[in-house]
Amino acid sequence: MHLAKKLLGGMAISCVLSACSNSVKIRLANEGPATLKNVVIRCESKSYTFDSIAACSKTPYCNFAKAYRYTYLFFVCHGDTFEQRPTDYVGERKLWPGWHTYHITPTYTAEGNPYIDATMD
Questions:
Q1: Cα–Cα distance between 59 and 46 in angstroms, integer?
Q2: What CATH number does residue 70 fall under?
Q3: What is the pLDDT of residues 9-63, one digit of tens each?
Q4: Is the pTM of this model over 0.85?
Q5: Residue 51 exposed, middle or buried by CB count within 10 Å (0-12, 13-18, 19+)
Q6: Residue 12 placed within a domain
Q7: Do the Cβ atoms of 62 and 87 come closer than 8 Å?
Q8: Residue 2 within a domain
Q9: Which domain holds residue 51?
Q10: Counting Cβ atoms within 10 Å, is residue 118 exposed (0-12), middle (13-18) or buried (19+)?
Q11: Whole-number Å distance between alpha carbons of 70 and 92
Q12: Residues contacting residue 71 through CB under 8 Å, at least 6 positions apart
């Protein structure tokens, strides 16, 4: 009984400490049916590049000091170039520290940007 309490207490402390981290961890999820190539994600001044992200797969998490619901994104799919360049983040709230996924669909929005949406994991 005491061992179970110690284990549960240790797990709770571990969870609290990891939740208190100020970093935002983001992975990319390719929601489309084709491979994305030459993928670049940039939040603030930090960038990550992936040679490819297979259809219906996810990247490892990348660490950022801060990020928003959408961000700079570049990739090539079936020879078409997709690029999203946010002009600013006025009115946007920063993502909470923790683990998030940017869901990418290689189709254009009405504004002509690739569709990207962040969800908290």
A1: 16
A2: 2.60.40.2890
A3: 443 333 344 444 689 999 999 998 899 999 999 998 899 999 999 999 999 999 9
A4: no
A5: exposed
A6: no
A7: no
A8: no
A9: 23-120
A10: middle
A11: 9
A12: 41, 42, 43, 84, 86, 102, 116
